Amino acid sequence: QRLVGRGVALPTGPDLRHFLRAAAARQPEPSQELPPEPGCAPVAPKVYLETYGCQMNVSDTEIAWAILQKSGYARTKELDEADVVLLVTCSVREKAEQAIWNRLQHLKALKARRPRARAPLRIGILGCMAERLKEEILHREKLVDVVAGPDAYRDLPRLLAVAESGQQAANVLLSLDETYADILPVQTSAGGTTAFVSIMRGCDNMCSYCIVPFTRGRERSRPIASILQEVRMLSDQGVKEVTLLGQNVNSFRDLSEVQFQSVAAPGLSRGFSTVYKAKEGGLRFSHLLDQVSRIDREMRIRFTSPHPKDFPDEASVLQLIQERHNICKQLHLPAQSGSTRVLEAMRRGYTREAYLELVHHVRDSIPGVLSLSSDFITGFCGETEEDHQQTVSLLREVRYNVGFLFAYSMRQKTRAHHRLQDDVPTDVKKRRLEELIATFREEAARANAALVGQAQLVLVEGPSKRSASELCGRNDGNIKVIFPDTELEDAAECRAPGRAQPGDYVMVKVTSASSQTLRGVPLCRTTLSRAAASH
């Protein structure tokens, strides 16, 4: 085998038998050791990971990489170096899936021109699209070698081993209890100042438009102890901002501790409802948020996404946000529509009036709340022009700082797919989306303009993408702030004057604002605790 591997031509038939007997006679005694063949040391296969979609997929990428790293894989950022290419995918909208199909065509060409001297390139589809379209992915042009759903990442080493034998391998089984609680994710951006921590998986809300319950399964929460361990690890690594992630974070409940399993379920306020029975027992999100915020007073804490129906009686969450200087005064309140009729068709569990009452409650409870963000879908089944105008008016009334707006995309398996008609024409969806975006930008520009002249505490993330002479970061409200990279004094006078680095907190006086960005002049370097004490 070694000779063949070196390109040596061997004789055949009787001559081969004579050759082998002669070679055996020349072998060393059993006690003798052959020197290792040059280049025979095992080389770790290189994996290239590419992430599409939401922050949950960023977290999933880190989990998948942690599993593969323990199995002997090496990471590469160069596509041409990879032995394995894994795409962590999204299925929320058709456009997201189309991006994956387009990417696969590029990878098909890469696979075809791979030198024969190298092992065949293996391609894998992970995440929500794998769960939704397993059969189509495997059979479409036979390009994909591995398919793994969101609950099957532990199986990746086995699936890749099967693929090495030339077979396709798949696991898209959904789990009722998988949270990857025992796996500490490996941060995909080493040295980063921010990180995402997944606290739960799946969703039980069953909104009529949403594919998530069918691609990520039923809702289940990680034990609080494992979450705290991960946050402490990130703090030790110098991470300065953590975002707690889940499809519905404020319905979090840790059932791992027996003494809390009989705790009564929280109630819903007037105007809010749910499609599932109240869930009793477990430590709730307010307890988790309290514990996480105590780990590192210099680490900012954010969370997303909460569901409006789970806020009203969670007064303790709003109270924590008000009291703790390191819990950001920013909330994501996904509305989806401003029309009660459309909200009912979406099975969101609240009316327009109940949603607005919640917004007023939040702003009354946290007078210093800096930023509100939301999600909106336009062109949902049966949406009329009047419904659309109600969404426009909601954007004006609430005046969000950050918005995520999309045209409706029908997804198979959802309730809308089975019960409703996707009857709003594409050109109408496009026009309405453009109107919503224009309205949002107009109101966000006004909301951000109110910050001009104020000093904002900014966590530096790095150089601005548009200018090497400027730095970029985000304020407490998660709004991007750009400012000149100049030498700064230290507010506590603990450090010599110097330029701000990623992970530093800088006080910036805002001089101008747009719908998406603030600009300002830096005043000094400081700390999260010192900035809070001075206000």
Tell me about this structure.
- The protein has 535 residues and is an alpha/beta fold.
- It has three domains: 126 residues, Rossmann fold (3-Layer(aba) Sandwich), CATH 3.40.50.12160; 257 residues, tm_1862 like domain (pyruvate-formate lyase- activating enzyme, Alpha-Beta Horseshoe), CATH 3.80.30; 81 residues, Nucleic acid-binding proteins (OB fold (Dihydrolipoamide Acetyltransferase, E2P), Beta Barrel), CATH 2.40.50.140.
- It has 17 helices and 23 strands.
- A six-stranded parallel beta sheet has the order 2-1-3-4-5-6, sandwiched between helices. A five-stranded mixed barrel has the order 17-18-19-23-22. Strands 7-10-13 form a three-stranded parallel beta sheet, sandwiched between helices.
- α3 links the parallel β1 and β2.
- α9 runs parallel beside α10 and α14 packs parallel to α16.
- The radius of gyration is 27 Å and the shape is globular.
- The N and C termini lie far apart (74 Å).
N-to-C span: 74 Å
Count of extended strands: 23
Would you give the CATH topology of the largest domain?
A: pyruvate-formate lyase- activating enzyme
Total of DSSP H or I helical runs spanning 4+ residues: 17
**Mean pLDDT figure:** 88
Measured as a percent range, the helix fraction is 25-40%
Oligomer: single chain
State the shape: globular
Strands side by side in the biggest sheet: 2-1-3-4-5-6
Corresponding CATH architecture of the largest domain? Alpha-Beta Horseshoe
- pLDDT under 50 segments (min length 5)? 1-12, 14-36
Count of all domains? 3
CATH superfamily of the largest domain: tm_1862 like domain
CATH class of the largest domain: Alpha Beta
